[in-house]
């Protein structure tokens, strides 16, 4: 039995859910998201919210049950509140600034890195050394943050690079004489 899968997904006010066979579409104030359910689970819209159940007692159906419920819950949370990740830049001369909707990064290379965000993702730079990634799709927000971090991952000797806010970088000791 999936402890997560058993819980119904509550639908807050202002969120509209459309369930048509295997296609689930959720619309809210922050945007709209869609998901095609796998054959191993069934979804139904009831008074307490969206209920996900396995179609049979196979191992795959039980595995998909909790995962699908978590995906639907993330979709509902995304269209109602949205998701956000913050990145920090550490290093001399490392800067970020917005250029229209694109992000321009100075990361110690001979050229500036320009990143164009995908549809549905908003980037902001409240400070020159801070980047905020926001959007309705949790997976897409995390993917965009990971792509930006990959331009200059933090190195273990001085800690220079792009890191998630609050991320701990394990430091190494330098050379000894």
TrEMBL record:
Residues 11-82, 91-164 form the Large ribosomal subunit protein uL6 alpha-beta domain. The keyword Iron does not apply. Belongs to the universal ribosomal protein uL6 family. The keyword Plastid does not apply. This is Large ribosomal subunit protein uL6. Keywords: Ribonucleoprotein, Ribosomal protein, RNA-binding, rRNA-binding. This protein binds to the 23S rRNA, and is important in its secondary structure. It is located near the subunit interface in the base of the L7/L12 stalk, and near the tRNA binding site of the peptidyltransferase center. One of its GO terms (cellular component) is ribosome. NCBIfam families: L6_bact (TIGR03654). It comes from the Bacteria. It comes from Hyphobacterium marinum. Part of the 50S ribosomal subunit.
């Amino acid at each position: 039995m999936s402890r997560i899968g058993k819980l119904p997904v509550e639908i807050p006010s202002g969120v509209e859910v459309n369930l048509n066979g295997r296609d689930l579409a959720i619309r809210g104030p922050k945007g709209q998201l869609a998901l095609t359910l796998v054959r191993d689970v069934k979804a139904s819209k009831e008074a307490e919210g969206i209920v996900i159940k396995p179609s049979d007692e196979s191992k795959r159906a039980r595995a998909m049950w909790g995962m699908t419920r978590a995906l639907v819950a993330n979709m509902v949370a995304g269209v109602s509140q949205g998701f956000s990740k913050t990145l920090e830049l550490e290093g001399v001369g490392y800067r970020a600034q917005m250029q229209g909707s694109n992000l321009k990064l100075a990361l110690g290379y001979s050229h500036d890195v320009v990143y164009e965000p995908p549809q549905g993702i908003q980037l902001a730079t409240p400070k020159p050394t801070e980047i905020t990634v926001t959007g309705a799709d949790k997976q897409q927000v995390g993917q965009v943050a990971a792509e930006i971090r990959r331009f200059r991952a933090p190195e273990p000797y001085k800690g220079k690079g792009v890191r998630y806010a609050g991320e701990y970088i394990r430091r190494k000791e330098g050379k000894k004489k």
